[in-house]
Amino acid sequence: MLCLAVLLILAVLLSLSWGQMKIPFSHVMAALLQGIAPGVADAGVPADQAAVLWHIRLPRTAVGLMVGAGLGISGAVLQGIFANPLADPGIIGVSSGASVGAIVAIALGLSSLSLFALPVFALLGALLAVLLTVSLSMRHGRIPVLTLLLAGVVVGMFLSAVTAAILTAMNENKMQEYLFWTIGGLDYRRWDHVLLAIGPMGTGIAVMLLLARHLNILVLGDTEARAVGMPVTLYRMALLLLASLTTAAGVCISGNIGFVGLVVPHMMRLLVGPDHRRLLPASLLAGGCFLVFCDAAGRVIFSGMEVRAGIMTAFIGTPYFLYLLRKQQRNLSD
């Protein structure tokens, strides 16, 4: 945990320093100190660097920390619920629902009228998709894991078809706007985006951390959990909705960023073990660190060109996903 905290601080400093305007670490620290405690000391930082730091890179980094942490811990929770290391937050229709909400806002022209229109519609779409998935899979007050998984796949396919149908009726400018959102990235994020998502994401993360011990019992199986008096359906539903809310709030301000919720929890499980009391905090820190670093690296990997965070996470996550898939196939064959 200490190593993860140090890596997280390093990733934040790199994110604040790297970019088209290179800001020395000394200026970053001085500007932060001056902003936190004004009048204590003369920062000595040029005005243009201070403006870039406080109005562009700090909100961008804050969004990256929130989204990465939320996706990391939500992925760990969903992998525990499904007992599958290949599960990620998009498996229950969150990403597909957010895409439908976003494209509706773009098609109606609402995204050009208000900064909050697209994030709010994406959040509502994601939550409605999750509720539809849960309602389709619930039988006699219980939610079978396999049925929930299949319902998520079906709902995701249906919502993808809805998105494609709306896309065919949109003009080129609106299609470009949707493509820009669906790739996922942290550019052009403002403090308004931070304020929009910090409430639901903070609440979801805090409650999931408190329920880590209960998730350990759920992983043992329904029979064992009921044997110790746990209301399995209640806790499974609560954890599922919390993970969905956290993921939806993150997706609505950053677009669809894949592989964070898949790769990070699995890597942390190898490092800290399967106990969710350690796995959830580790996934929280590592998720924030991973996304912030990917975003910072995307700004400097090519001179004069920025690679969006969603592309960077896919480049890094895809080979690891294929490795997990291959490893699982070998285990099944053995």
Automatic annotation (TrEMBL):
Q: What is its main location?
A: membrane
Q: Where are the transmembrane segments?
A: 62-83, 90-110, 116-136, 148-170, 190-212, 233-259, 279-302
An example Gene Ontology biological process:
siderophore-iron import into cell
SUPFAM superfamilies named in the record: ABC transporter involved in vitamin B12 uptake, BtuC (SSF81345)
Q: Name one GO cellular component term.
A: plasma membrane
CDD domains noted in UniProt: TM_ABC_iron-siderophores_like
Protein name in the entry: Iron ABC transporter permease
